[in-house]
Amino acid sequence: TLCRLLQAISNLPRIEPSQRLRGYYYGQLLANCGKNFRVGVGARIRNPALVSVGSNCYLGEDAHLYPWNEKIVIGNNVLIAAGAKIISRNHAFEKLGLPISSQGYNNQPIIIDDDVWIGFNVVILAGVTIGRGSIIGANAVVTKNIEPYSIMGGVPARLIRKRNE
């Protein structure tokens, strides 16, 4: 029976206590935070008062959330892998006679619905909504809204297939 117990324990997902501790710390600073928020080593949340996170979410190692004057809303059961960058600000560039560095910024909220998996090193830009149950493949750059249950990949991110087909 001891062998079976050890085998069962070895098959459980490993969750570092430090991930829970960092999640608790950030949870105190966020606009809203559900239960069981876990944060990997080196992850960073700028302006945490502009971020809401649901329950059972994970922010991977070295992932960064940058809400610049606009909110980032993350639903329940969302996995954000290591190295992901979520940024609610873009540079303005519409005026050709003015240097880009002098044109200011366009800030727009980002919404990530429930049950989304954001892969390794994904970049999500301002104004994007990612629909429920979607998967964003590693190294994708998301510039437009994503419909629910979509599997996306590439630069810019394109539909690979729907999960519910």
Any idea what the shape is?
A: globular
Structural class: alpha/beta
Helix count from the secondary structure assignment: 2
Radius of gyration: 18 Å
How do the SSEs run, as a string of H and E?
HHEEEEEEEEEEEEEEEEEEE
How does this structure look, described?
With 165 residues, the chain is α/β, with parallel strands linked by helices. Helix content is 13%, strand content 30%. The strands form 4 sheets. A 7-stranded mixed sheet has the order 2-5-8-13-16-18-19. Strands 1-4-7-12-15 form a 5-stranded parallel sheet, covered by helices on one side. It starts with a helix and ends with a strand.
Task: Considering the chains and any ligands shown, give keywords for the structure.
about 160 residues; alpha/beta; seven-stranded mixed beta sheet; five-stranded parallel beta sheet; 2 helices; about 15% helix; about 30% strand; globular
